[in-house]
Amino acid sequence: MRGRPFPFLRRLPALLSCLLLLTALPVFAVQQPAVSDGMPGYQHTAWRVGQGAPGDIWDIVQDRQGMLWLATGSGLYRFDGRRFERQAAPAGTRFPSTNMVTLGLDGDDGGLWIGYFQAGISQFTQERLRSFGRPQGVPVGVVPRFAHDRNGRLWAAVNGGLRWFDGRRWQEPPASFGLPQRRVQWVLQDRHGTFWVLADLQIWRRPPGAARFEATGIAVSQMASLVESPRGEIWLADRVRGTSPLANAHGLLPAEEREARRLPGLVASRLQFTADGALWATLSPHGGVARVTFDGQQAVRMERFDAAQGLTATSAVPVLADREGNIWVGTNLGLNRFRAHSVQTLAVGPTDPYRSLVRASDGRVYGYGEDLKLFDLRRPLLGGSAAQLQAAARQAPTPVWQFDWINLARTVSGHTTLIPLPAPFTGQPLHALLFADADQAWACAGERAVLHYTDNRWRRETRLPEQACSSLARTDDGALLLGYADGTLRRLHGATVNSYGATEGLSVGPVTALLQHKDLLLVAGEAGLAARFGNGRFLPVRTDMAGVLEGITGMVADANGLLWLNGSRGLVRLQVATLRSALRNDQAIAPRLFDAVDGMPGIALQSGPIPTAVLAADGLLWLATNQGLAWLDTRQSHINTMAPGVRIGDVLYGSTQAPLQEGLRLPAGTTQLQIDYVALSLARPERNRYRYRLSGVDDAWQEAGASTRAYYTNLAPGHYRFEVEAANEDGIWSSTPASRSFHIAPTFLQTAWFKLLCVCVVMAALALAVRVRSRQLAALFRARLQERNGERERIARDLHDTLLQGSQGLILRLHAISQSAQTPEPVRTQLESAMLLAERNLAEGRERVNALRDAPFAGRDLASALADVHAEYAGQGTNPLRLTMEGTPPPLQAEAAEEVFLIGREAIRNALRHAQASAIEVELSYGTRCFLLHVRDDGVGIANDNAGGGHWGMQGMRERAQRLGAELQLWTRPGLGTEVALSVPARRLYHRHPSRWRWPWSRTSHD
């Protein structure tokens, strides 16, 4: 019988092949991370088509100001965090199509590049639109992507071929590039200098410095895409094979590594890495959005978010990480935003309605519920299960304090011991607890007890009043702080007890939390928060957010100088330096509130004997809320450091609304304006704050709060400049204000010409009023002069008919008597002497009467009139007159000339009658500014200044000069003669020359 080979030997080759295959499987195994629905670490916000958002969003970019631009199937939109605005083409132009699929930023002038579905490419700015089609070198087809290479050259992936822009048209790469010109679907320039192209269903690359593209030999599916990770790796999204890394700084990854790290379950349209290394993807063709986290190179978790979780639609394409860390996802039914929570909820842990926190003496924090089961809340354990956290807590190296409302509990090495309150307080409720260290505790129980547990037994604190407290805290120097329901505070240090109340400025209502941080003492109450620095008074802390500091039941200070307050509105963050400055200057502060949008699961617990905020040694801030335990990592900043840009929008004046562009000219009569503006901070746009000012109207910045509109009324015409600044949710203000200048045109009634015309009219009215008044005064003067002349003539007639005629009759009578024979000679001699005297007086009287009856100067020039006076009184050949005249005599005002003549006549007569002068000199000078009259004699002079001849004398001359507005001077010395000088202003004596022009209503004066 022929024997058969041993069966094992026959199967050895097959067994070896299986062994080799099993050995190789780990090498070629793909990654299959755990998949879960929902993203608990992110806040999702949706803007749907019915809420103003556009549909069919194909691409999203963020410009340099922070504005989001959306390429949609219905046109170009922009989004500022509050509203969507469809962007129209500049005046006189139109977009080639409304079906836009791709956007790219223009590096030159801040514009946009737009790729259409089948209509070429456009370059868009607010002022200009340039479109490029086949005549300009753009082939027919979809434009999936734009990219700039390391030299700044702009490339466009078009289904019909790769193109680059030379500034005027799109050029096809030469054949020497070695690149196929069909089915080009993606371009990417990485940070290492390599330029990647997906063309003809293959991956091509051009290394730095190379002139040709080289094929990688890696095939891709239709509509594949590329992205670069923060580590510098290039990842490929393939619609058949899923998502995988492609290359790093050293070049292509080995095929084995690409396969081992491939994510076949992540079939994506677009990819986006975030700064924390997580990979976001929009799933194709449906499935919403996914987020993949890695541990090194290993994908450990995939979170999916679809329409069931609130996504606007299950079909999503673009995904973008903006400069503030928000993730934006566009779908065919709206826009979505994902924002990372600052506060994280503990997914596993105590499930009781009331959950408490306690910090052990070694800095570890534990959580527990009413069943007193401890959970270790250290940072490395947070990803574990509830059983793992409880097991770790049982290994606690130090004792842990707890309470169950009427008892204390102490857990050592996993064993828990209840510690009841001493009699008579056993079973009474606990109002406040303080676990000072691993071995001692303080408790306020019942209505009057303050108890101290130390050395394994209770002691009642006798140094304090019998009043139960509502809050307990410890200071750095070991003092005990006690807050009470009546709003008072006590400090126990050694044997000293200090009390503080309303007298010291403390007025916060029932005290709910206490914190001593260095020289800062904070006291929180139901009515607010008070602060005290050093030994000063308590000052109320005011904020610009109403009620944000109420109901605070937990306060801690971290190593960065930040204060964290857990209250009835959420978690509040304050900076110690800002608080100090605000209290010093009596100003309100702007706190940062962390609420549900930031991940807070609820609000602070409001009833409990222990603080609701505890800081662990590992930097995690733990919070007890009415919806569970939560934590915040204080080692991260949680501050949005990106200063927001501000966009000034439209201006509304009257019924017209238009963009407020630089140099805008508003129509005449505009007095009221409404100016719109918005901050381009997209993280928490509802928390942005603003301040603005208008030059010429506002002396300082006007705080606007969250309002995005400014109103002005009663504006005058002129040039204005509007400036606005904005701060994000963390109080980071714009680096420079946004500004616009505009001009309000004046109405005719507001122009300078009208004002000048008004001035001219007023001046003309004044001139007319002066002229009319002058004429009235002249007429009045003439009337009074005529009245005076009439009175003089009447007096002259009366004197002539009575005194002079009587005197003449008396003289004749005396003459008859003197000629009588019966008159003795001595008597006749006396009578003749008396008659001579009477005849002289009669002659003088007639002279005066003649002077009253007729003005002696009328109708003559001044020089000849004065010469006639000398001739009349001097006689022939005696007292010669020397008369000189300077200048040409102008026309004189009659009344003033008569006054001058009378003054000169009196001076001449005085010289003839009283001076005994041998010569008289008269000098007349007609100057341009004044008229001068000098009368000189060489007589005996005047001994008395008041002496004068006739009935007028020097006093009469002075009165005439005063009425004339002239100056009269007299120089005389006994034996040396006398000089009389008269100076008359030209305007009082000369007739004015008629003006070369006159107002139309004026008349030539003939007076």
Number of helices: 10
Percentage of residues in helical conformation:
10-25%
Neighbour order of strands in the largest sheet: 1-26-25-24-23
**What does the oligomeric state look like here?**
single chain
Low-confidence runs: 1-10, 12-28, 946-952, 999-1007
Biggest sheet overview? 5 strands, mixed
Radius of gyration: 56 Å
Q: Which structural class best describes the helix and strand composition?
A: alpha+beta
Would you write up a description of this structure?
The protein has 1007 residues and is an alpha+beta fold. 19% of the residues lie in helices and 36% in strands. The protein is built from 10 helices and 69 strands. Strands 1-26-25-24-23 form a 5-stranded mixed sheet, with no helix packed on it. A 5-stranded mixed sheet has the order 58-64-63-60-61, with no helix packed on it. A 5-stranded mixed sheet has the order 65-66-67-69-68. The longest helix has 67 residues, at 752-818. The chain is elongated.
